[in-house]
Amino acid sequence: MAKTVSDLLELVEMEEHVGGWWHDFITRHSEQRHPEAAVALADIQQLLGIWFRALGGDGGLEIATADATLSNARRSLLQRMAGTQRKTELAWRDENALRLPPVIDIFPNPQLNRDLYLWLGALAAMDDESTDEPWFRHNQRISRRALERFPGLRDKYLDLVQAHLEQRKLGHWPADEIAQEQAIRRALIEPGSMDALPPSRRMPVPVPLWLHPNPPQATPMPAAEPPEDPGAGGGKVKELEEVARKQTEKAETQDSDRGLITVRMENIFSWGEHVNVDRGTEDEDNDERADEVARDLDKISVTRNGKAAKTRIRFDLDLPAEAEDDEIISDDLMLPEWDWKKRQLLADHCRVVELVARDAQAIALPKRLDRTAAKLRSQFQALAPARVWHRARPDGEEVDLDAYLRYRTDRASGCQVAADNLYRQMNAGARDLACLLLADLSLSTDTWVNDESRVLDVIQDSLYLFAESLAATGDQFGIYGFSSRKRDPIRIHTIKTFEETYNGRIRGRIRALTPGYYTRLGAGIRYAAERLKDQGAGRRLLLILTDGKPNDLDQYEGRYGIEDTRHAIQSVRNLGFHPFCVTIDQKGNDYLPHLFGSSGYVVIRDPMELPGQLPLLYARLTAQQH
């Protein structure tokens, strides 16, 4: 009996080995890829952003990865046996981003793969998103426009076409598919030469040199309200990096514990098209498995059942925590908002609630910052103007001898002059400068930078040292924080007004800060501009401290939030103020140039360096403006 079991085990192992060998063999021979010549989007993403915008592309679009989409094109026998080429990775653009394949390895030459990225960037820069024009004609038109506007691209384009046509091999296909393929070949060689794509029962073989014929569209989802207790269940949160944005659909909540699932065995291999399994409360314990499932799905169904998850995969959405309300100062200020689709400024669209920490007690500067603060105070005191005599004053510490001698001379010559303005007064010098620091206090500040500090802790240390430094110069400054929960309310946390003196009570307010909700940055900037208007200084600086892109629960996600923020910044500049952004968002270079210009922001790579860098950055900015 033991011998029989041993023989069976050996047979199973051999079957697994042969099966693995067969899978590797058939997959390798069915895939039309060249991993040894692969070029990754991440390696040239910054270059592509510059290239796309330099060729006239929309500056509000970021460069992002495109997810693979299902293709109904004809596949070879090997591809059907191996189950490959069911999905294809094509480029497209939507209102938020230019989306490109995460890796291009379709050519054996890495230079061709790199040139394909550049060509797709040029093609997208010519795209005017004419949704009523057929895909076939549209791609020809924008290809022709790119070649006419940038003749230097023609040689690269022809090399790409030649290499791609060698891959598009005709088989024993039906006549309608052959006619369709021939039309595509001619359109690639001579863009604009074909007016229409011949009809066929199948979709054509994907064309990687063109934009997607039917790009994924996100289904509008109603805004989800924040959970009552986002920390309930103690679930782990895993950040999912380098994953394309998924399509979404709204799904009804399934009954959690209802019984048997029946599966027809012939459908067991079709789960990739649709996954709608009622898992009840049996959550995924394996973090890596949850990661794989999230990456593999084309469309994610979203619902709410009010139960905590054991493992959470974070894409682009953070959910806010309930924060204790501070004392309300006022709640009647209304601010406008820019609707970029309507090209219209919506008056009185956002309601501002001004808050101040209710029970903030005066505290000393944290001991860990004493040495750094002392060094900064010493450096910033050197920026303060020296004490100067103000002459010809109506009263003062001493007689102004020059003014008195002029007075006596005029009287002796018979001139009738008044005996006023004969004194001088020693006053401390002051720079004609006012600065407002606006700090992002959204929920994302509750994330951890390392094992010891959250983003909020880093921001608090930055505010402490910033205030210590500016107090040493005598410059006028105010500090405010903000977060939002849709357009009503915009929560403005008053930390220090321009009229207040920096002291222990201000430090107490800094310590009392907690993570808020979302980042409706345009509203925060407009509020800061209203406060700066009240200052009489000749130079007014708006310093914005943030850790991510503008976003909120409603339509203020993606392009809408970016364009409203840009409009707010332009309004600030029109008032003669100087906005500058300091961010710890490592992806800031993707969107901040569109908002602030190439010299209007800085990305701090190591968040732990922010407290020491922020005061020094202020010193450089004010020195440049002086």
Show the helix and strand layout.
Blueprint: H1 2-30, E1 39-40, H2 41-54, E2 62-65, E3 69-70, H3 77-82, E4 87-88, E5 92-93, E6 97-100, E7 103-104, H4 110-126, H5 135-149, H6 154-167, H7 175-189, E8 236-239, E9 247-250, H8 287-296, E10 299-302, E11 311-314, E12 327-339, E13 344-356, H9 370-381, E14 388-393, E15 398-399, H10 401-412, E16 423-427, E17 433-440, H11 455-473, E18 476-484, E19 490-496, H12 504-511, H13 521-533, E20 539-546, H14 559-574, E21 578-583, H15 592-596, E22 601-603, H16 610-625
Parallel strand pairs: 2-6, 8-11, 9-10, 13-19, 17-18, 17-20, 20-21, 21-22
Antiparallel strand pairs: 1-7, 3-4, 5-6, 12-13, 14-16, 15-16, 18-19
Helix pairs in contact: 2-4, 4-5, 4-6, 9-11, 11-16, 13-14
Folded structure, characterized:
With 626 residues, the chain is an alpha/beta fold. Helices cover 35% and strands 18% of the residues. It contains 16 helices and 22 strands. It has helices at residues 2-30, 41-54, 77-82, 110-126, 135-149, 154-167, 175-189, 287-296, 370-381, 401-412, 455-473, 504-511, 521-533, 559-574, 592-596, 610-625, and strands spanning 39-40, 62-65, 69-70, 87-88, 92-93, 97-100, 103-104, 236-239, 247-250, 299-302, 311-314, 327-339, 344-356, 388-393, 398-399, 423-427, 433-440, 476-484, 490-496, 539-546, 578-583, 601-603. It has an 8-stranded mixed beta sheet, sandwiched between helices. A 3-stranded mixed beta sheet has the order 2-6-5, covered by helices on one side. A hairpin with a 4-residue loop joins strand 12 and strand 13 (344-356). Helix 4 (110-126) packs across helix 6 (154-167). The longest helix is centred in the first third of the chain and has 29 residues, at 2-30. The chain is elongated, with a radius of gyration of 32 Å.
